[in-house]
Structure formats: C-alpha cells, structure tokens
Amino acid sequence: MLPYGRQSIADDDVRAVAEVLRGDWLTTGPAVRAFEAELARWTGGVPCVSVTSGTAALHVAYVAAGVKAGDDVVTTPMTFVATAATAALLGARVVFADVEPDTANLDPEAARAAVTPRTRVIAAVDYAGHPADHDGLREVADGAGALLLDDAAHSIGSLHRGRPVGSLADLTTFSFFPTKTVTTAEGGAVAAADPGLLDRAARFRNHGLVREPALQRDPGHGGWHQEVHTFGLNYRLPDVLCALGLSQLRRLAQFRARRAALVARYNAMLAQVPGLALPPRRPYADPSWHLYPVRVLGGRRREVYDRMREAGIGVQVNYIPAYWHPVFEDLGYRRGMCPNAEAYYARQLSLPLYPDLTDTDQDRVVETLTKILR
C-alpha cells in the first residue's frame, strides 16, 4: 500500500541517534539544546521549547497562555481533535468558528463573530501547510485582547508574507510525528517570543520545577534543592529523539523543495481532471506542504477513497470536523455549526505526499485517480 505520508530517514539520522545512545545523555542533555536552537533558526529567531508530542505542545501553550475554566478558546473545526481537546481539558469552552471554503483555514471574520468577552486565545491551524490569514487573525486577536496561537503542526518552514511560521503568533506549536515534514518519531515544540510565555511553557513541561535559588521561596538548602510553585507535567523530549530531529532539521530545505516539486507536478497533471478541485495558494503564502488535499466533487469522495485504496494507494481524509466527535456531541455541540468546514470535509481527500515519493509512484496515483473520475 502506497501511504499518504511517511517519514524520510537517512543514514545521517541513524548515525545521529546512535551517537547519543553511545554517549552520556539520553535525556535533558546537549542534544535537546542543540535541537531547540536549530528549530529557532526556522522560526526567525523565536526561541523554542521541545516537548513530547504536538498534543503536548498545545497543552503547554494553552497553559502558558493562562487558559482556565471560564475562558473561551476560538478555533477551527478542520483539525485533528487535539487542537480543541487540550483547551477543553483545561476547562475552557471551545468555540468553533468556520473556515475559508477553499483553504480550510480559520476565517478571520468567522473568528471575529465568535469572540466573546471571555475569549483568551484564538487558535488557528495552518491546514495542509498553507499559512492561515495571520494578518486578519492578528487584528481579531488584538481587538479582543486575546492571544493568537498558531497550530503549525503542518507548516514548519512555511512563510507568510516572507515571515516564517513561528514568528507570526504569540504562541506557535509544532508536531514532529512521522508523517510531518520533520520527525522526531514522536515530538513537538512551542515557540514564543515573549519571555514570560516561554518561561511558563518551559516550566510546565518540566513538572513546574524551580531550580534557580534567586527564584525559590526557601533557598539555601544545597545544590539539590528544587521547588514546585505551580503544577506541571513531564513533557520533556529526550536527547535521543532530539538528535533525530536535529539531523532532520538540517534537511528541512531539501524536504520543502521536494514537497513543492511534487505539489507542482500534481497541479500540472490534475489541472484538467473533471470533478476535482485542487488546493489553492494565497499570494501571501509560501507553504511547506504537509498534505496535498484535493476536493472530490459530485458526492463521489467515498467512492474515490474506496477505489483508490483498493488499488493500493493509501489516500486519507483530513479531518472529521472536531465537533462531530462524540465527546463534543455529548457537550452539546451539534452538526451544522460550521457549514464551510462540513462542506470541505465532505469532499476532502489527501493524496500521497512525502519526499521519498517517486515520480513513477506519483504518476500511478494520478493515473488511477484520473481513471476513476473519468
């Protein structure tokens, strides 16, 4: 089965991991700092805190933003459920706002209409790697007195008006799952320019520990002394995985270029295929394409999905609108809230896209899809 996405592992990645395994540090060591520093080069210098997953990154970011019971978090339903679930777990009310009908990114005007006096965070998702309208969303967030969070699980390396993802929002979260552009197997990160936000993120991912004597309430016991002032969790990403991530980041430009070339080939070969809408690209965006999401028209998405997979091509659907999950239904959310998102979902199909996808395999994807639709 040809997958819709997969990791791209080279000998350098294997050597980097083996070197750590033979060294003195498996976790909380120099590879973590090196990985975070290299990641900050891709965020325009905005410092980063590594964590154990993209979901952990969202949890850490919402905690750093001070999200709590009684707060509202405005976000998109066209995302993996973690974008909303991590806010709900902190007691916040998730307010879903509709998306742009073609990019599936959070619509700034829909977000504006969803804002309440209790809105603490507006959380966008750079769907498929295409940056959201961060100018419009920044205006909405600032007007609401809220923080802007960018769930950049799909978009590491992407640019918005020449500025890198990671520098556009108050808090940015990354995912390094194997299907993403860069992988640490499991892993994530939080980027924040504000020192206070970054410090809260760093402490929460490490149990809330305070080791600096100048900040402790009862210092002077000895070098072993540490205190917890606010609760946190162990979300530390170990050195062995950071070594893999560091090696991967050094090939991010190569990954971006190959994905862009594959997208260009798809665009050219599928341009005249009937019953298909191709992913758009806004003039302000230079995406790092994580997905190649087409829309199958005429109510044929299920048919195309089944027939493609029967042919050994692992297409995927990304995503079920988040509030369709029973956990949100049980909280009172109902279908029909975001018609653009639901219409997009009904047609969406992700075609295989990853750096090791060969031109020959891509030709096979296009030929099979074209045969089905014609």
From TrEMBL:
Gene3D superfamilies: Aspartate Aminotransferase, domain 1, Type I PLP-dependent aspartate aminotransferase-like (Major domain)
InterPro entries reported in the protein's UniProt record: DegT/StrS_aminotransferase, PyrdxlP-dep_Trfase, PyrdxlP-dep_Trfase_major, PyrdxlP-dep_Trfase_small
Alphabetically ordered keywords of this record: Pyridoxal phosphate
Protein name: UDP-4-amino-4, 6-dideoxy-N-acetyl-beta-L-altrosami ne transaminase
Family stated for the protein in its record: Belongs to the DegT/DnrJ/EryC1 family.
A Pfam family reported for this protein in Swiss-Prot or TrEMBL: DegT_DnrJ_EryC1
Names of the cofactor(s): pyridoxal 5'-phosphate
